[in-house]
Amino acid sequence: MEIEIRNLLDECADIVTNNLSEIKKLRYKIKYKEDNSPVTEADRFIENYISEWLKNKLPNLTFVGEESFDFRIQKYDGYVALLDPIDGTENFCSGLKEWGTSLGIWRDGQHLGSMLMMPELNEKLVTGDKIPYLNSRITGFSSSFHEDIPKGMCLAEEYRVTGCAVYNLYNVARGAFKRFINPKGAYAWDLLPGLMIALEHNCEIKVNDEPFHGQFLEPTKKYRVDIQHQ
C-alpha cells in the first residue's frame, strides 16, 4: 500500500499541536548534555511519541532523532526519518516562542517530504505548499558563535540572530530573510528538512561551500550552510 507522505507529515504536526499544553508543562524540566546544551523532558516526549508513531506507519524505519540517535548506524536504506523534536531548546526552556519541530522522510536516499513547524507561533510549512514570497533585506545568522558571524553582520543591510534553525530556515524559504548563514555547522536533523523545503522555494544553497542539490546528508557529521532566497 502506498503511503501518503503529506498526510503523514500533517499528522505528525498534529501530534505536536494536540499535545502542546503538555509540552509547555515540561519546558522547564531541564537537564544539560555533555556539551552544556539544554534538553527538556518535552524534547524527549515529542521524540518518543513521534518515533513510535512513525515506526507503526513506515515498515523497517531507520529513525534519526536528535535525542536518541545511535552514531554507530552506518546504513540508511529503506525508510529514514530525521526529527529534531525541539529546535531552539534554549529559547524554548527560556519561555520564548521561537522554537520549532522539523521532520524529513526519505526512502532509499530519495526525499519524500519534509515539515517545519513553530507551534507557539502557529506557523507550518510542508513540502508542496504554495506560499507568497517576500522581499527582505535581512540576513539571519546562527546563534552558535563563529568569527565569521560578526564579519557578516558588518556587511549585512539588516541582520537577526534568533537561536532557532527552524525559524531561520522557514523564513529564508519564504523570503522573510534574504539569506541565512551558519558558518559553524549543525547536524542533519537541525538542517536537512529545512534545506529541502528551501530548495523547493527558489533558494540557492551551499553546504560546506559546495552547491547543494538535495542529496541526503550523513547524520554523524556537521554541516556549514549558506542559503540565499532568489
CATH homologous superfamily annotation of the largest domain: Fructose-1,6-Bisphosphatase, subunit A, domain 1
Strand order of the largest sheet: 9-8-10-13-11-12
SSE order, one letter for each helix or strand = HHEEHEEHEEEEHEHEHEEE
Q: How far is it from the N-terminal to the C-terminal residue, by CA?
A: 38 Å
CATH architecture of the largest domain: 2-Layer Sandwich
Q: What's the pLDDT, averaged over the residues?
A: 95
Number of self-contained structural domains: 2
Estimate the global geometry from the Cα principal axes. Answer: globular
Work out the number of β strands: 13
CATH topology of the largest domain: Fructose-1,6-Bisphosphatase, Chain A, domain 1
Instruction: Please indicate the percent range of residues in DSSP E strands (runs of 2 or more).
Output: 25-35%
Count of DSSP-assigned helices: 7
Protein name: Inositol monophosphatase
Keywords: Magnesium, Metal-binding
Family: Belongs to the inositol monophosphatase superfamily.
Binding site for Mg(2+): 66, 84, 86-87
Highlighted features:
magnesium, inositol monophosphate 1-phosphatase activity, 2 domains, 7 helices, six-stranded mixed β-sheet, metal ion binding, Inositol_monophosphatase-like, alpha+beta, Inositol monophosphatase, five-stranded mixed β-sheet, 13 strands, D-Maltodextrin-Binding Protein, domain 2, 230 residues, Fructose-1,6-Bisphosphatase, Chain A, domain 1, single chain
Question: TL;DR of this structure?
Answer:
The chain is an alpha+beta fold.
